[in-house]
Amino acid sequence: MKTIDRAELCFSQLNSSCRKTMHPRSLSVLFYVILSSISVLTVALNLLVIISISHFKQLHTPTNLLLFSLAVSDCFVGLLTVFQILVIDGCWYLGEQLCILYYIFDYVVTNASIGTMVLISVDRYVAICDPLYYPSKVTLKRVRTSVSLCWIFSLFCVFVLLKDNLGQPGSYNSCSGECVVLVYYVTGIVDILLSFIGPVIVIIALYLKVFMVVVTQARSMRSRIEAVAVQGSVTVTIKKSEIKAARVLGIVVVVFLACLLPYFCIGLTGDKTLLNASTATVFITLFYFNSCVNPLVYAFFYPWFRRTIKLIVTLKILNSRSCKANLLIS
């Protein structure tokens, strides 16, 4: 009978301890560097968005309120990445109560992030496809209500999803040092439909419609310009705008799918879905990386964001009148 090396156990003093996932040292260092970079970058970028929108009064608009909600959820996702650093070796050292709290917090903020992305796609759809009625349809009050319902719904869903785990945290762990929750197959499928497949369909459908409208308007404008014999550089500009619209919308959809699809595929593997923090580290990390990309996709394309970064970095934001700064100048 082979003797187990105590150094390979999560808790060397316990015979019931789980065994560590032994990685080559170089691979472990690589994981630490990648996860730490994602965590720091995600928190920093989203904090810039949060400070910008909350401080400058000119940015208190319905669309920016959605960006604010997205940045808050994504900032928390960046903090959650720290837990993935702690479980690189496959061991959970923080106790059973913190294990279930981690899953609750993780579910709420990640699903709030996805829900806010759906709200942003709806906002942009109305703004581009129905611009005349946009001010009356999309108001601050309605956006606040929608954002609040998004967070409340995420909180409600997690208690339904993990209700059997809340009463006895750690009851599904097979050994000490494991952080596992049980999600029944039917419940997991419903959750995937509501938190992934549904949002993906909505986002893709709305962005395709927005893209078609943008391209149609650009071609119509180009036709009018050509009709009055004003071609050359102006025509090239219109073509570039079409390409830029395609690129931005493509980044939104492709990054979203690439980061989230592997993680949610875990939920389709078996009659009962066990989410193990050790075996799912790579998929969860990729899932979290989407929150690092979000501020780049949704915020860095706005000129006002680049201006607010300069004001924050140069500490001009400390000026009492800075909140009234004109950030929307051309």
From TrEMBL:
It is found in: Cell membrane. Gene3D superfamilies: Rhodopsin 7-helix transmembrane proteins. Pfam families: 7tm_1 (PF00001). It is a multi-pass membrane protein. GO terms for molecular function: trace-amine receptor activity. PROSITE patterns: G_PROTEIN_RECEP_F1_1 (PS00237), G_PROTEIN_RECEP_F1_2 (PS50262). One of its GO terms (cellular component) is plasma membrane. Residues 45-298 form the G-protein coupled receptors family 1 profile domain. InterPro entries: GPCR_Rhodpsn, GPCR_Rhodpsn_7TM, TAAR. Keywords: Cell membrane, G-protein coupled receptor, Membrane, Receptor, Transducer, Transmembrane, Transmembrane helix. The keyword Flavoprotein does not apply. SMART domains: 7TM_GPCR_Srsx. It comes from the Eukaryota. The chain crosses the membrane at residues 29-53, 65-88, 100-122, 143-162, 182-215, 248-270, 282-305. Belongs to the G-protein coupled receptor 1 family. This is G-protein coupled receptors family 1 profile domain-containing protein. It comes from Oreochromis aureus (Israeli tilapia).
